[in-house]
Design a protein that fits this description.
Number of domains: 2
Radius of gyration: 22 Å
Order of helices and strands: EEEEEHEEEEEEHEEHEHHHEEE
Strand content: 25-35%
Distance between the termini: 44 Å
Structural class: alpha+beta
Mean pLDDT: 77
Number of strands: 17
Low-confidence stretches: 169-180, 183-190, 192-208, 255-259, 261-267
Helix content: 10-25%
């Protein structure tokens, strides 16, 4: 049985699908939406050469006990770097679940003149005013961590009902966007398509809208980001942490201090709307297009050595305890 200690390589592609390779030759791939995985076991050395390797394909939230530990580890890796986490309730420990807190995903960050907390080792920490999210800038200033409360993944109809309550208090139909799996050639990608929300037609749906705290739970998500590739969600708190971290450096040059002062003057007039950001939301529990899932396993009968190399765009690689990021575009 494979264990998390036997991992030799983990790859996250641009479409946010994940591939994990184990030391015994086993490979595991997770779909871009996180809702399905396929595990390819190594060929039996004593079996017939033409006998295909055993493949196991399961829905993530229904993974059997034999693979549950592997899937939990892969999801933790995926959610740490993905734009939106996948959080099936069945795979979240009971002590990690929290009561339903708020339908709103918006948080307000402190004013530019606010003090920034300094953590152990000199980390600069910025917390949202409601304490639902925090950002910690590393002492090197090259990376930062975020921790935020996120509602657990729900079925699509409940997921849309929650967004409806958040955006339309009157429960009026609205046009929303959902992340689905699509395919272009042999490469899966995430696309957005409008979905017309339907008013609740069943008693259960109406009850879910009336009492969401009885239907939804939340958990804490921790993510790791590079300061060279910052999502707009974290741009303001990161700028605040960077400014305060630099302003407390006694060895900074006078010209640098002058530049920081100018930046502070420009940022002091930030409006409430600019200080507000929408936290990442969990993906729906089930994928609406599972038939678009594409698996990147190589042909076991191929003799070409380069067929084992990934041909898709890679976002991140983990190997021997070291994480390598592949950044696109201009790096500041």
């Amino acid at each position: 049985m494979e264990t998390t200690d036997c991992v030799s390589l983990m790859i996250m592609y641009e479409d946010e699908s994940v591939e994990v390779r184990y030391k015994n030759g086993t490979q595991l791939q997770l779909s871009p939406c996180g809702s399905e995985f396929m595990l390819l076991k190594p060929a039996d050395p004593h079996g017939h050469p033409l006998q295909p390797a055993e493949r196991v394909r399961q829905r993530t939230r229904f993974s059997t006990s034999k693979y549950k530990e592997l899937i939990v580890a892969v999801l933790t890796f995926r959610n740490k770097y993905a734009s939106r986490p996948y959080l099936p309730e069945a795979l979240i420990p009971v002590d990690h679940k929290k009561p339903f807190l708020s339908i709103e995903s918006d948080v307000m960050w402190p004013e530019w003149s606010s003090e920034v907390e300094v953590g152990p080792g000199g980390n600069a920490i910025v917390r949202s005013e409601d304490q639902r999210a925090s950002l910690m800038l590393s002492p090197s200033g090259e990376e930062f961590f975020v921790e935020f409360t996120c509602n657990i993944s729900r079925p699509q109809n409940q997921h849309q009902s929650m967004e409806s309550l958040s955006r339309n208090p009157d429960n009026r139909p609205s046009c929303m966007q959902q992340v689905i799996c699509d395919s272009t050639g042999n490469q899966s990608k995430r696309t957005r398509q409008p979905t017309q929300e339907r008013s609740c037609s069943r008693e259960g749906d109406c009850a879910a809208q009336q009492k969401p705290e009885q239907m939804y739970q939340s958990t804490t998500v921790v993510q790791h980001h590079s300061c060279c590739a910052v999502s707009p969600i974290w741009s303001y708190p990161l700028s605040l942490a960077q400014h305060r971290s630099k302003s407390k450096d006694a060895d900074a040059e006078e010209t640098s201090n002058s530049k920081q002062t100018d930046t502070g003057m420009n940022m002091s007039n930030k409006s409430l709307e600019e200080r507000r950001s929408q936290l990442p939301q969990a993906l729906p529990l089930a994928c609406s297009s599972p038939h678009w899932h594409r698996w990147k396993f190589k042909d076991p009968l191929s003799k070409e050595e380069d067929t084992d190399l990934p041909s898709e765009l890679v976002k991140l690689i983990w190997h021997q305890g070291v994480t390598y990021r592949i950044l696109s575009g201009v790096v500041p």
